[in-house]
Every structure is written in C-alpha cells, then in structure tokens.
Amino acid sequence: MSDSADEIPETVATYLRLRGLAPSARSFKRRKRRAVDEENTPFSAGRDPKGISDVLGDLTRQAGWEPQLAREDVVRAWAEVAGAETAERTRPVAFSDSTLTIQADSTAWAKQLQLMRAHILSEIVRRFPEAGVETIRFIGPDVPSWKWGHRTIPGRGPRDTYG
C-alpha cells in the first residue's frame, strides 16, 4: 500500500481493491463537513422559547418605546413616589421634554412640594431612569380666566369697575 492509501479509510481501500481499482487519494471523494450552525441547532441555547414578558421587553427596546412607557410608569406609581397623602392632593398633568409638571389642589401644596422637589426628583430618577425626567414644575389649581369669551375687552379685567 502507498502513502496515499493511508489517507483513505480502510473500508474504502478494501472496496477499491475488491473492484480491481487501485486506491488513491483522488479516487476517494471526501464529503465536506458542514459547519455547525449554533443558531439553528435544536436544543441549543438560543432556541429555547421565550416568555411573553421577554418578547415584549425586546419589542419595546427595539421600537424605542422605553422612555414613553417609563413616563407612564411615573404617572401610575405617583402615590409610591410622592407618598400617599401627597398623591391625594396632587397629580402629574404633563411631560414636556425633560420636565414633569405636577398640579396641586392648592397653592399651599404647590409651595410645599417646591420645598420637597429634590427628594421627589431623586426618587423618580432612582426608580425610573429611562423616563428622562430632569426637572419638576409644580403648579396650583386651575383658576377661571377673565380673558376668554365673546365679550372680552382689552384691559385689566373686572378690577376696572371697582375704582
């Protein structure tokens, strides 16, 4: 047997000898081995089914919805962030850019919350960093405006008639 016959598996060499053919490396066509594709191999790490929460988490991350959903979470968890008593007297009303606007039942509550601004802001940033809240604005209750309606005239308003 030659050196090239050593490269050929013994079973193939025996078959070729029985057929009367001289075994050689060229006569033996080796099959190419397929590269193992880990992504499509059954029972591999990436093939396990995912839970619905994982799928939705991936979807929101890829779609870029995380900041908006985090802002909604701030509104939903306002009672936990600000405290139960404070949440009874206040409510988040708007997000604009990185500012959260909170409306209070009275101007006194709005002023008190201004004093607590750093604590509330740090709690929001700690719990919901994706929301992007950088500042908080506190406003008092909505008051009726004298500047609306079809009989509005320019000037100081109802104070004109008192003096």
Structural overview:
The chain has 163 residues and is an alpha+beta fold. It is 42% helix and 11% strand. The longest helix is centred in the middle third of the chain and has 12 residues, at 52-63. The mean pLDDT is 78.
* Helix/strand structural class: alpha+beta
Helix/strand order, N-terminal first: HHHHHHEEHHE
Could you tell me the mean pLDDT?
78
Instruction: Specify the biggest β-sheet.
Output: 3 strands, mixed
Tell me the overall shape: rod-shaped
Please indicate the percent range of residues in DSSP E strands (runs of 2 or more): 5-15%
Rg is 38 Å
Number of strands: 3
Q: Helical region count?
A: 8
> Helicity, in percent?
40-55%
- Strand arrangement in the largest pleated sheet: 1-2-3
In the predicted model, the low-confidence regions spanning at least 5 consecutive residues are none
- The termini sit apart by 127 Å
Concise description?
With 163 residues, the protein is of the alpha+beta class. It contains 8 helices and 3 strands, in the order H-H-H-H-H-H-E-E-H-H-E.
List the helices and strands and how they pair.
Layout: H1 3-7, H2 10-18, H3 52-63, H4 66-76, H5 78-82, H6 84-89, E1 90-96, E2 99-104, H7 107-115, H8 117-127, E3 135-139
Parallel strand pairs: 2-3
Antiparallel strand pairs: 1-2
Which key terms come to mind for this protein?
8 helices, 163 residues, 11% strand, alpha+beta, three-stranded mixed sheet
